[in-house]
Amino acid sequence: MAQTSSMAQPAGAAPSLSIALAGSGGSGVMTAGTLLLEGAARAGLQGLMVRTSGPQIRGGEAAALLRLSAAPVESLDDAFDLLLAIDWSNVHRFADEIPLRPTSLVIGDSEGDPVPEVFATSGARVLTLPLKKMSKAVPGSWINMIALGLAGALAGVPAAALEAALAASWKRSAEALAANVQALQSGASQALGLDSPLTPLAPVAALGAGAARPARWLLSGNEAAGLGALRGGIRFVAAYPITPATEMLEWMAPALSRVGGSLLQAEDELASINMIIGASFGGVPSLTATAGPGLSLMTEGIGLAVAAEVPIVVVDVMRGGPSTGIPAKSEQSDLSYAVHGLHGDAPRLVLAPSSIADCAATTQWAVELAETLQAPALVLSDQSMGQSRCIVDPPAAAASPPLRLLAVPDGQAYRRYLDTPSGVSPMAVPGVPGLTYTADGLEHNEAAVPSSQARDHRVQLAKRQRKLLGHDYGARWADVEGEGALAVITFGSASGPVREAVTRLRRAGLELRLVVLRLLAPLQAPAMAGALAGVREVMVVEQNHGAQLLHYLRGAALLPGRPQGIHLPGPLPLRPAGLAEALAAWAQALHDAQERRAA
Amino acid sequence: MNAIEPAACFAATDYKSEVKPIWCPGCGDYTVLGSITKALALLQLPPHEVAVVSGIGCSSRIPAYTRCYGFHGVHGRSLAAATGLKAARPDLTVLVASGDGDGYSIGGNHFLHACRRNVDLTYIVMDNHVYGMTKGQASPTTEPDWDNKLSPGGTGVRAFHPLVIALASGANFVARAFSGDPNGTADILARAIRHPGFSFVEILSPCVTFRPEQRDWRKAVHPAAVEPTDDPARAARRIMTDDGFNIGVLYAGARTPYPVGAPPARCTVDELAREFEL
Amino acid sequence: MKRAPKTLEELMAVALAIELDAVQRYKDFADTLEAHNNHEVAALFRTMAGYEGHHVEQVMSTMGWTTPPAAALAPMPWVGGESPEAVPFEDVHYLMQPWHALELALAAEQRAEAFFAELVEAADEGPVREAARQMQAEEAEHVQLVRAWMAKVPRPDSAWADDPDPPRYSDL
Any idea what the Cα angle at residue A176 is, between residues A173 and A179, rounded to 5°? Predict the structure, then answer.
């Protein structure tokens, strides 16, 4: 059943428009969505695109879901303003993902099937146009160009920007391009005569027009993570394809070779994790990317990296779980596994980027930490960031310097696992004389000799823990915003809709503090205490069924008062209105309880 | 097999469920599904006494499309799950369905040991020389120079030769089939199921979406020129020198299958416990 | 055929097997195209399955069969793998148009006609040869029917297989 949003966009918020393009079997909606986003970027707008499709490999029903605005977009809105369907074949299957409002507009083909009831009952205005006929009137053109031009015009994305986007990615003949441009213009021209309830976005200074407009980037979370990895110094990747991480690997394969690295397709995840441990032992910063099922297979290897103190980075692009789960949908349900899931006392680093742009910075930081602390770092990305495309202000960062503490021969016997105040021991790189040693998953003494002695085990356990706990992580452990005695804590992609909900509530007079965690392990207790100074009650928001973050933080006794949780599993995205309602109700209940106590 | 019920006569369609496959139109797996149902009808096995175990991939969707018991497990582990099932329930006929990615890459280790162990299973691998999943990557049977996004220019790694590996590891029945010949494939599958021990049938099944050039397989395949042999050395020579398109039963050996099933109980648990008494 | 039918029963079992295979094949095509949102061609294939179903009934009533005899359900020793009237599975495409479907059906009927022509040649004069002649004539009629149908259907343009969107798979 299509939801209707009770909370319309509040005044003062930067206006945004949400557009859904749907269709099936050759209609090209994914391509149209991509071009709409690219056109918007060229027109100086910002935006986000999520794609959804049926289980067929080709010809299936599909929808491109976009949100465009003059301001940065980090979350889907509560509902779509425009649903444009080239055809309605099985599009009703996306009804849960395409909520509509009475102020929305639905457009279909006047000669196609009627609008499915699930969309019609939303109260949205329904219009039809002869889309197929218009497409046939321009021989050699695709029907999705009609849709693109029309949607663009209704949204306020100038046709010129769309044409530029089309031309930039065009790989076929010039005649076909001309036909498609004509179709695009034909679609755009239809917007003028339509009785549309939509307010197109106001024009902004287009890219390249004037010095004031900075360059923007258009990329997916997977690509951003790949870039972050390279910036951090990764030069070897071994990996096995898995949804939704594969695009990160496919981006990195040619990119690595261009910067002097390489990617090896492994036979499975057991091989991948062990290959990158081997490469890193050899001195080359190494990374792999996977999803839940692959992470499960890698667990033993991650433990080996902990015990042998070999730096590695494992990017987990989380998806619906457990087991094979829902491969093409997002969830934040690998958190417990990432922070706890190793046998033995095995401290490791766990980080979570909180937006598509942040995928670059946080992955880079993960590489830096792994190399500095000679430990495995898990990066919890997810499908909604990994496979969505976003227009972002370029995440500026210089490439990281090499950070591995390297051993230098000094004539003494080399002790690989020397107990130092920081817990980090100088690491030898094979090929350097005088420093040979055998890395080991077996417990060992400082000289890297396997040992079952109590003292050695204590020393090494303490060292491996101390090196992580004693490190100064600086201010990046979390983003802390706002004031107030009530705080909301979240991580990862949930932060987008949460931040938008908090902003709306703030405008309505409810002040909430927001803590978006970026470093999930080791937990930063003093920093958290500082962030929550003056906070009486906390709500933890996350996209999983088991309230994993809530239990994790409560278990570490980091939360004041009686912590509550909003924990909703995938496959549907979190939406600002629902979160705002729940947070407002929570705040109200706390207020009422306080009143009663005072009375 | 159970006592024959005279009234029950299973047609191939009795083994198909009402779930419509979502393989791409043109996919070879459709006819493989048909061949499996035809083979089961030839053998007149009651559908509820057959289990189809699979991993992850296009081919692994098959269990849901049959009316047999099915187990859709995790990537590459179908042989392990099937071995456990057969060991615990020797009365069932256990078929294992896989693809070249699932079966030879992540499943490679289990493949070796399943052939060695020689449990009475029938392993059906639909080989299309590509990972149908995740938009087309090289699989272990892909040619080394096939250009793809994850390995631009090709992997440069020699293709796996599953029939040779199977034979060398001890599989008791080795055959190659082609999805474009459903009746011939049904015949091979029926013989494979009937043959004791680990039967391995590799079915060339073109991928119309990621490897459209495989339409030419129809012209490349040819029936094996000789009868199956039970001499592993002779079979090895044939298989190692064939062109990859030799269709038929290539080896049918006489190894004793791995003994499955539990022996009858000889004492109670209490009797065991009493052995601790002094 | 690897072994030509010797009796009328054998021949008609072969003919029935051909039609049963055709019904199943067209039904399978209809299902897969339906699942891939090609409703127009799915409907066309369902219609064809219906016609083949009529042919099944014709053969059965000619022979007085109420259910297909075992001989018609056993695997047939076709040369080259498939029944002459079965459209090869790899010949369908998710974006195919009605004209393509009819083109495939036409080729199938022509193969069937040629098949029975061969049987006519191979048989001695008698009921088998007569039945084979009749089957050949019927297939020839089907060929004409499909041709006529094709004439009423638009030819696809060169860009019929153009899909701007890439394949998308996410089982693993």
Answer: 150
Domain assignments of chain A as residue spans, ordered by start = 16-215, 219-392, 474-598
The single-letter DSSP state of residue A242 is -
Residue B120, C-beta contacts closer than 8 angstroms, at least 6 positions apart: B86, B90, B94, B196, B197, B198, B257, B258, B260
DSSP state of A25: T
The alpha-carbon gap from A315 to the nearest alpha carbon of chain B, in Å, equals 17
Please name the CATH architecture into which domain A219-392 falls.
Answer: 3-Layer(aba) Sandwich (3.40)
Q: Are strands A16-23 and A537-542 parallel, antiparallel or unpaired?
A: unpaired
Question: How does B195-222 read in b/e, with b if 16+ C-beta sit within 10 Å?
Answer: bebbbbbbbbbbbbbbbeebeebbeebe
Residue A405 belongs to what H/E stretch?
A: none
Report the pLDDT value the prediction gives residue A4, as an integer from 0 to 100: 34
> Is the CB of residue A56 less than 8 Å away from at least one CB of chain B?
yes
Q: Which residues of chain C neighbour A242 with C-beta distances below 8 Å?
A: 172
**Residue among B229, B222, B173, B206 nearest B24 (CA):** B206
Mean pLDDT by 10 residues, chain B (278 residues): 52 93 94 96 95 95 95 95 94 96 93 97 92 62 80 81 95 96 94 98 94 90 91 92 93 95 90 91
Chain A residues 286-325 with a CB less than 8 Å from chain B? 293, 323-324
Report the largest interatomic distance among the alpha carbons of chain C, rounded to a whole angstrom: 60
Of the residues A34, A36, A49, A58, the best mutation for testing chain C's interface (the one with the most C CB atoms within 10 Å of its CB) is A58
Nearest Cα of chain B lies from the Cα of C142 at a distance, in angstroms, of: 25
3-class SS letters over C111-165: HHHHHHHHHHHHCCCCHHHHHHHHHHHHHHHHHHHHHHHHHCCCCCCCCCCCCCC
| Residues in chain A where the model's pLDDT stays below 70 | 1-13, 206-214
Per-residue pLDDT reduced to its tens digit, C119-158:
999 988 899 999 999 999 999 999 999 999 999 999 998 8
Host H or E run for residue A313? strand A312-318
Cβ separation A26–C162 shorter than 8 A:
yes
pLDDT on residue A386:
98
User: Are A409 and A417 a contacting pair, CB within 8 Å?
Assistant: no
Listed by number, the residues of chain B in 49-78 with a beta carbon closer than 8 Å to a beta carbon of chain A are 56, 58, 72, 74-76
- CA A534/CA A560 separation, integer angstroms: 10
Identify the pLDDT of residue A321: 95
**Residue A546 touches chain B, beta carbons under 8 Å:** no
Helix ranges, B94-177 (H): 100-101, 108-117, 162-169
The CATH class, in words, for A474-598 is: alpha beta
Tell me, what's the pLDDT at B131?
Answer: 64
Least Cα separation, residue A244 to chain C (angstroms): 8
Check: CB of residue A563 under 8 Å from CB of residue A556: no
Integer-rounded Cα Rg, in Å, for chain A is 26
How far does Cα A167 stand from its chain's mean position? 29
Q: Which residues of C touch B25 (CB under 8 A)?
A: 29, 32-33, 36, 38, 92-94, 96
Chain A nearest CA to C23, separation (Å): 24
Does the pTM exceed 0.90?
yes
Per-window interface: B 5-44 vs A, CB < 8 A: 22, 24-25
**Residue B160: predicted pLDDT:** 79
**A16-215 CATH fold:** Pyruvate-ferredoxin Oxidoreductase; domain 3 (3.40.920)
pLDDT of residue B103: 94
Same fold, A219-392 and A474-598: yes
Q: Kind of pairing, strands A16-23 and A62-69? A: antiparallel
Residue C161's closest CA among C98, C94, C101?
Answer: C94
Q: What's the rounded Cα separation, in Å, for the pair C30 and C44? A: 8
User: Phi and psi dihedrals of B60, rounded to 5?
Assistant: -75, -5
